[in-house]
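Quick question about two entries, pasted in order.
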Amino acid sequence: MNILDKIIFDKKKEVVLKKSIIPVSQLEASVFFSKETISLSQNLKNSNSGIIAEHKRRSPSKSVINQGFTVEEVVKGYEKAGACGISVLTDGKYFGGSLDDLLLARASVNIPLLRKEFVVDEYQILEAKAHGADLILLIAAVLTRDEIKALSEFAKSLGLEVLLEVHNLEELEKSIMPSLNMIGVNNRNLKTFEVNLDFSKQLADKIPNEFVKVSESGISSIEAITELKPYGYKGFLIGENFMKTDDAGKAATEFIDELMAIG
C-alpha cells in the first residue's frame, strides 16, 4: 500500500466517524453556509502572478515544515503579498491541518480559500462550505469518473468552485467535464512523491481552454513559473517554499514582487 492508498483508507474511516458525530443539519446551520463565495478562477484569469499560496504545517514527504506560525499570521501575510487565493490543508494525520485552520483563515482574509483535502464524500464538501471555503480540490488519482462528476456537481450546487488535480494523461482524459472550473497538474507523483515540472508541460495542450490551468507542487523559483506560463498556466500553487521560511508572508511578498517586476 503506497502513501496515497493509506491516506484514502484512513480518510474514508474518518468521514464515517465525523458523520456519526456532526449531522448535516449542523453544517448547514453554519454562519458561512449561505455566504457568497469568491471566485478563484476569475482571480487567476485577471492576475499577472497567479500565485495560490498554501498554509501547510507538515507533509508525508517532508515531515515538519513549520509549526511556528499562527494561521492568522500566514494568511494575512499572503493576502497582503497579493496572492490570488490561499490553499488551506485540512488533513490532520498526514499534514497537521484541521477544519479550524480553514475557519480561522476565513475569519482573517477576504480572498478565495481552497479546502485542500482528500475528498471522497459529499459530506466533506458540506464541511468545506460550512467552514468558509470558496472551492474544493478533487484528486483524479483516487476517484472514478462517476465520483468526480457527482462530487463536482454537488460542489457547484453549493456555489463552490472545483479544482481537479491530475498527474497523467489517463487521469486527465477520464476527468474532463463541464462541472470543473480549474484543472491542476500535480508535478509531484503522489505515489512516489518525486517532483518533475515536465508533467505540467506534457499535459498543457491536452487541457481544454475553457478550464483555468494550474500547476501544483515543486514550484520554488521564479524561473519555474516563467517556464510554465507559455504553456498556458494561469495558476501556480506554492506550498513549502513560503512555509519553510521564518516569515511566510514576507517570503510570498518578495516572490510575487520579483515575479511582477519581470512581467
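Here is the second entry:
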Amino acid sequence: MRPPYPPSPERSAELRRRFAEEARSERPDLSTLCLLVGAEADRELDEAGLDAAQVELDRLAGLLPFRPGGPRAWAVALRELLGERMGFHGTPGDYQRLESSLLHEVLLRRRGLPILLSVVWLEVARRAGAPVYGVALPGHFVVGFGPDEGQVLADPFDGGRVLTGADAELLVAGATGSGIDPSMLRPADPLDVVLRILNNVRAWAAARPERSDVALWAVELSLLLPSHPARLRYERAQLLVQRGEFAAGAVELEAYAEVVSAVDEGAAERVRGEALAARAMLN
C-alpha cells in the first residue's frame, strides 16, 4: 500500500467537524465514524470513496439470507458469507499495517485487525436485521448475537468462527491469565469501539516515531469524542513538542498541569517542568 498521508488542513477541519457532530449525535453511526477516521488517515479517500464504502456494506448485507433464524443461525450465516465466501479474516502480519485499522482499506483488502473485521460483521449484520453487537474481550474484539442467556460469539479475525465457551475462556486467559468475567461479555458502546480503534492507531504510530503525524491526528480525533481519558491531553502536548511545536506544546502542558493539580500537585509540578523545558527549546 502507498504510505497513507493526511488530507489538506481544510479537508481535515471539515472531517473533524463531521466526526465530532456524529460522535455527539443521539445514535452515533459506527461505520460513518470509522470511515471518517479513514479519511483523516488517507487523503485519497474522498466523498465518492466514503459513499462507495457504505454501498459495499449495503451490498454485503443484501447477500445474507432473509432472517436465517436464532443467534447461532445468524452467526453461521455471517461466517459463511463474510468469512468463507468473501474471504474476510486476519493474519498476524495485519498487526503491523496501519490500513488494518482503516475501514475502507479493510473492505478492499478483506484483511484487518479483529476490531475492524468486527466492524464489518457488525455493520453488515445490523443492516440485515441481526441481533448483533460488539464484545470487547481483553486483547481480542469479537461479535455477539442474541440476548445474554442465549449469547453466541463469533471471531471475525478467524473468519467468523463460532466460539464455544471454552474458546472464549482461552482467548481471555491468553490476554489476562484469568477467566472470563460476565462484564466482559456486555455489548460494547459504538464510541468505545471508535476509541479502541484510535488507540490501536496510536500504538502503531508509537512504534514508528517518524509517523508522529499519525499519532497526532489519532489523539486529536480521540479528544473529539464526548468521553475520553484526560491523559490524552498530555499525550497531545508531548507530540507537539516532539514535532518541534515547542510553544504550542508548552501551552498544552501548562493547561494539563492545571487539571492535574487538583488531584496530584507533585505530578502537576513535573508537567510544569516539562513545559519550561519545552519553552527553553525556543531559545
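Reply: The first helix runs from residue 9 to 23. The two ends are 41 Å apart (CA to CA). Hope that helps.
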